């Protein structure tokens, strides 16, 4: 399943890299501590977080994360968005909280496409 | 502002808070919560009072040299005051904004410092007043109606 | 959902609260930031977190959260365990990451603690 499919199914608001949503998602990672995400997220994961500062783009880029979804309708900080656009990292926003969004994505990924 | 002098205080106690000592961060609020639990108050009033006390205690430990938290119980309300000696807040309006924080990496790794503290205090209090002086300290007054 | 079911779904170990596994938890909340827990978590819910310090126990106590699930096989310090025991807060540990922990519980019908869920269940 790719990010575009997730975006359609879960009504996500795409903020950046709209042309880079077809990568296959290898799994999900939910976390707000950057050190944890740096240590444990896997390449191609979709990252679910409430952090909005620009360091998330650097972490996503270093770890080859497929995309970042911000929860609770959190909006990215202006420099975060700018950086995500520049580095072509998909940044999306969901009104759900981390638990519900993780629950939904986990169960969507469990369906084989 | 709360009219402290004119109303009968039913119970009052002050607690000392040491700045920078995370081992004890929260211990005052736990005591305040257990005091309030023994009184005839709704669970919601106890919970809201404990939350605002806890957020202000974490703020003192995170940023100030030392401080005092004072619990006062009146016939119709709970008042919690947090007074610290610390760096103060230069721009209160900015500090009140959701997500604004000057926290150190140490504070963030503990799960605090996400810039929600004053915002949470404001949203859980029925009345909230804050004054601050740079290089002197910060004074919070939080009121929860019974 | 009973805690015993949560344990089964998450293949979790019980660190504190062996004698309290019949406890009912209705909603779940996942966060690594205690400030978010303070802002959004509801009383009586289940907290899923990767943090293991004593502040987690104190935050849970302040908010009347029912129980804690530590994710990615995290083990708390003795100090954290003792505090949880003293305050009678059940602590479980699962090997799953937060994403999968949420996914497994969600798949079995555990709802998130959202304002709208809360309103729907308390008002007609």
Question: Could you explain the architecture of this structure?
Answer:
With 113 residues, chain A is α/β, with parallel strands linked by helices. Chain A has one domain (3-109): HprK N-terminal domain-like (Udp-n-acetylmuramoylalanyl-d-glutamate--2,6- Diaminopimelate Ligase, Chain: A, domain 1, 3-Layer(aba) Sandwich). Helix content of chain A is 39%, strand content 18%. Chain A contains five helices and five strands. Chain A has helices spanning 3-9, 34-40, 55-62, 78-87, 98-109, and strands at 13-16, 27-30, 45-49, 67-70, 91-93. In chain A, strands 1-5-4-3-2 form a five-stranded mixed beta sheet, with helices on both faces. Chain B has a single domain (16-145), classed as Histidine kinase-like ATPase, C-terminal domain (Heat Shock Protein 90). Chain B has helices at 27-37, 43-63, 92-96, 105-109, 117-124, and strands spanning 9-18, 66-74, 77-85, 127-133, 137-145. The model of chain B has no long low-confidence stretch (mean pLDDT 92). By secondary structure, chain B is α+β, with helices and mostly antiparallel strands. The two termini of chain B are 17 Å apart. In chain B, strands 1-2-3-5-4 form a five-stranded antiparallel beta sheet, covered by helices on one side. In chain B, α1 packs antiparallel against α2 and α2 runs antiparallel to α5 (117-124). Chain C has a single domain (3-122), classed as HprK N-terminal domain-like (Udp-n-acetylmuramoylalanyl-d-glutamate--2,6- Diaminopimelate Ligase, Chain: A, domain 1). In chain C, 42% of the residues lie in helices and 17% in strands. Chain C is built from six helices and six strands. The longest helix of chain C has 10 residues, at 54-63. The chains are: A alpha/beta (113), B alpha+beta (146), C alpha/beta (124). Chains in contact: A-B, A-C, B-C. At the A-C interface, β2 and α5 of A face β2, α5 and β6 of C.
């Amino acid at each position: 399943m790719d990010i575009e499919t997730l975006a359609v199914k879960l009504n996500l608001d795409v903020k950046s890299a709209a042309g880079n949503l077809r990568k296959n998602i290898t799994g999900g990672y939910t976390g707000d501590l950057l050190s944890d995400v740096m240590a444990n997220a896997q390449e191609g994961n979709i990252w679910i977080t409430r952090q909005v500062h620009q360091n998330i783009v650097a972490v996503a880029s270093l770890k080859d994360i497929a995309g970042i979804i911000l929860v609770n309708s959190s909006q990215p900080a202006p420099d975060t968005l700018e950086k995500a656009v520049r580095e072509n990292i998909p940044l999306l926003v969901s009104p759900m909280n981390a638990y519900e969004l993780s629950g939904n994505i986990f169960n969507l990924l469990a369906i084989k496409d | 502002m709360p009219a402290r002098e004119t109303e009968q205080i039913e119970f009052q106690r002050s607690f000392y808070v040491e700045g920078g000592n995370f081992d004890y961060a929260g211990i005052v609020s736990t005591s305040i919560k257990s005091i309030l639990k023994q009184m005839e108050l709704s669970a919601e009033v106890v919970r809201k009072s404990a939350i605002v006390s806890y957020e202000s205690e974490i703020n003192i430990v995170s940023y100030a040299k030392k401080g005092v938290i004072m619990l006062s119980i009146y016939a119709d309300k709970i008042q919690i005051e947090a007074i610290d000696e610390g760096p103060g807040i230069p721009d209160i309006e900015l500090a009140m904004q959701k997500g604004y924080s000057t926290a150190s990496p140490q504070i963030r790794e503990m799960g605090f410092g996400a810039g929600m503290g004053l915002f949470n205090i404001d949203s859980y209090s029925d009345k909230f007043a804050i004054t601050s002086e740079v290089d002197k300290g910060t004074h919070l007054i939080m009121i929860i109606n019974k | 959902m009973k805690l015993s079911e949560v344990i089964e779904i998450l293949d979790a170990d019980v660190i504190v609260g062996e004698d309290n596994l019949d406890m009912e938890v209705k909603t779940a909340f996942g966060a690594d930031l205690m400030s978010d827990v303070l802002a959004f978590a509801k009383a009586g819910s289940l907290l899923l977190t990767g943090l293991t310090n004593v502040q987690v126990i104190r935050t849970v106590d302040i908010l009347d959260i029912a129980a804690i699930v530590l994710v990615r096989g995290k083990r708390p310090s003795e100090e954290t365990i003792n505090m949880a025991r003293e305050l009678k807060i059940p602590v479980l540990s699962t090997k799953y990451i937060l994403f999968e922990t949420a996914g497994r519980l969600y798949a079995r019908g555990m709802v998130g603690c959202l304002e709208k869920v809360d309103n729907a269940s308390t008002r007609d």
